[in-house]
Here is the input.
Amino acid sequence: MNQKKVMKLWMAFMTVFALFIAGCSDESSGKGGDDSSATEITLGFYSSGSADEKMQELIDKFEEQHPDIKIKTQNAPYQQFFQKLDTQIAGGTAPDVWLSDGVFVQKYAERGAAKDLTEWINQDLNKDDYYGLDFNKGPNGSYWAVPQGIQIASLFYNKDMFDKAGVDYPDESWTWEDLKEAGAKLTIDTSGKTANESGFKSNSVNQYGLTFFSITEGWMTVLKSYGGGILDDSLKQSIIDTPENKKAMEYIVDGMDRGIFTDPSDLQAFQSAMSPFPSETAAMRIGIYARVLAANETGVNYDVTVLPKGPDGERFSPVIANSWIINNDASDKKAKAAWEWVKYWVSEDDVQKEWAELGEAVPVKKSVAQSDMFLNSGDKPANKQAFLDSFEFAGTLDVNAVWSEWVKKTGDNFNRAFLKEASIEEALERADKEVQKVLDEFYENQ
Amino acid sequence: MVSPYLIHFIVFIAFTLLASLYFSFSRYDMLNAPQWIGLENYNKLINDPVFWKSLWNTVYFTVLFVPTQTILALILAVALNQSLKGLKFFRIAHFIPVISSWTVVLYVADAIFNPRFGLANDLLVKMGSQPQQWLNDEALVIPVLVAVAVWKGIGYMMVIFLAGLQNVPEDLYEAAEVEGAGILKKFRHVTVPLISGTTFLVLVLSTITTFQAFEQIYVMTGNSGDITAAGGPNNASMVLMLYLFQQGFAFLKMGYASAIAWVLFLILFVITLIQVKMQKKWVHYEK
Amino acid sequence: MKKNPNKRRKIISYIVITFSAMIMLTPFITATFNSLKTYKQYTAIPVEYIPNPFRWQNYVEVWRMTDFAQYGWNSFIVTVLSVLGALLSCSMVAYAFARLDFPFKNSLFIMVLGTLMIPPVVMIIPQFIIFKHMGALDTLVPLWILEWLAQPFGVFLMRQAFLSIPKEYEEAAKLDGCSPLQTYWRIFMPMCKPQLATLTIFTFMTKWNEIMAPAIYLSSQEKFTLPIGVLSMSGAWFGKEQYLVAAALMSLIPILIVFFFTEKFFVKGASSSGLK
Here is the structure.
């Protein structure tokens, strides 16, 4: 009897509760319903501080130009954005169009989450006008995404430190060996000794020659300019265990051993791998374009030049085209509206210029990137042309559908070599085996 | 009266369990519908060295963490279970880490274990020893994480013990004293048996939660929340939950991740059974 | 005779506790100093412990550049609703398990224990789908609603507590004409204040500090709770990482204040047992 009463009470409570929740949901889903003529699309992007405001401004302008399209935004910081995106795709709630880190485009493409944009691109865009379209091309020639902004690397150097040490600024004639030689003079320990002097303590360095970080701004760049690399052209075969890579690794490990390059545990000490250069704890860095933001903010006196050559004169600059992806599940109407947004983004000069003003990426539209507005804006670095010159020898990071996974396997093994917990041969051999396994597992099931 | 639990069970547990069980026999990347592949995930699991390593790490972490925390917490609780001056201050001091989130602990612990400017290395060097890499050292990473976990959790365990101790009637101690028992004897023969119920609860809970702990490792070893970087160096701090999460969410192998989850579930089930058996043997319930 | 061992015990206790309190507090003090430095001084070797000068503007900057008040409010809502839900639902279910008879009681309880062992990550995707159908994505609802449905930990904890209450109380209540519900509310609940306090603290801490669920369910910045609000700041200030320390410590302040004023409830409340 009494138990029943309690049950009833609880049930009543739960009903109220359910109504309450339903109330909440109505509120959130009812918003767009009043204006049935407009297409509402959801736009997802990862936030980066000041850029969010600009993005909203550009969205407002877009809505003015396209009264029939309404944009709802969904943004989160980088890590959270991508973690949630996967769950959203699974749950069918992903945005209709989203900004993807260039290295994830293939992950979505090869798993069928991205819409094939080849036809629309051929129809609406003149490919020669833009940087980076080809960096998102799948192995079968389809285009899966349209670049939003380009990240390409060059060599950043701190002019004050070079002046103080009496070392000539780097230029396009430098090889990686030249860089290390100059770096040795720029590496200073707590007692003021440089890396070339006897009694130099490589475990208490106050100023590093080069900050060296992970794949893009670290090993991939060196490996490729030494003629090595990670995957072959098919992107399904590992080519890690090669003499070229071994030579490149020997170069890196020696630099770390002598304290000239930051090793993985040095970087952890600085809280962020990005911080040694802007905080003037390192004289040089391999940096993608976005790194000018932090350097400008802290007011470092620096410039950039193209990355050094390998022993055979080969050069490599990693490039990442962060891109708009249209959801493969979006209805035709929404996909078309999303495409309007993408077109607006890349083709409108104003949009390209306003975004470029943030200094966060190299503009996608070549005419804007090559204009005074970008090259001679008065902001550092003076030699922005170096970024554009780098397109000549630019390459992607062997991006495929299992990129994050093989990067982890490679990185873990390389780090062991960097910290001298494994020999270079051992690290290359193990990385090769593990990466091949990752590739086989995925592609055999395709 | 069990209806809330029933709703919980039917809607949120039974459904999700069946779904995840199905996933564990499928190839499922979250973006496409799951595809039945039978036992393949489990087969792969047996041959996956990282899985075995993370299982070992999980056990190692738990074995190091649970007894250390339990014993230290009990000692502190006994010390605090009396009228002392400044009692409030001491309790607050031990509770601040408890109420801190792992995000806070990340930066607070870094003040100690930063390989460059941390207090620990500074002291080591001043005492003439070699500085250590702490979280970057394959051998030290788990002990350091355990130390931080004990530091964070001990105040909470202490409170549970304190509540248990205060249920021990004072006259029992007085009786023991009349019989001439010293501090240690009283502890062994009065305190321990009477709080064995509390101790059991503490042990069961901390074993289970430790086996599933991963926020700490995710936050402290992952470079600013990067799930693929967590568990390093070279998987030395990779635990099952983290591995599961990484496989599922970073590499989109939800099927494989679900298989790991089920193995983890089985292990926990066995552990709990053993603990329940043990409970009958040595817990003294007050009659 | 009696005073001597007591005095010795006190001295030993003081030594133990003072030492351990130092270990507890030193990291916070060091971190607080770190948060008041320039980045240069923060990463300097040899280490400079005392900031020079004390840069209080670090905190001002962090406050200015982030949405702290909003994060704090969100955390507060989630935590309060969770604690209320846990206290009510867990104790009711536990009471049923401890004192009432109903079909499949034992197998149900084994299931409670079993669900305690299920790694929560397994359920993320299916639960995500459920919440999607409820229209609860990007709201705070998924973060607290499960607490209203009796989480196994609380049930387990409360059942242990109820089991230790002597049957005589119940029988006395029955003689006075109390229904099971009244017995539960008037007798069992007041007698289990320590465990209720423990459950409060436990739920409070878990929810206040939760990282995974908010990261998955919340997408708008204005809905963020404190821990992911702070976590999302890493990467916002390259070369000024001492700001992150300041942000982290700032996120601790509200809970520290709450704790300071309710410390009696948090800790001592746990000892005002109904058994005495």
